[in-house]
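ok trying this again, last paste got cut off
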Amino acid sequence: MDRLVNRKVKLNRLIRMSEAIKGVCDLVDEGKLSISTAAEMSALKPKTQESVLHLLDLGYKTTLPSATENLQRTSTSWKLTL
């Protein structure tokens, strides 16, 4: 039963990846970003995903999903700027 649940979770993550921007998908393909992290990022608006990618390029590290949840709240209630 646990294997079935695990497969369902993985499938849901892959489906969720369809909402990710190309840069996020590229990092997954290069092995620089896990699918679970990318799936969490894909819940963000495309512009916010780009901002997160920029921060990652600058060397920032983040703990997802808590950071994703914070970004979602921030980007809906305030203008997110770098």
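PB: full thing came through this time. The chain has one domain: 2-77.
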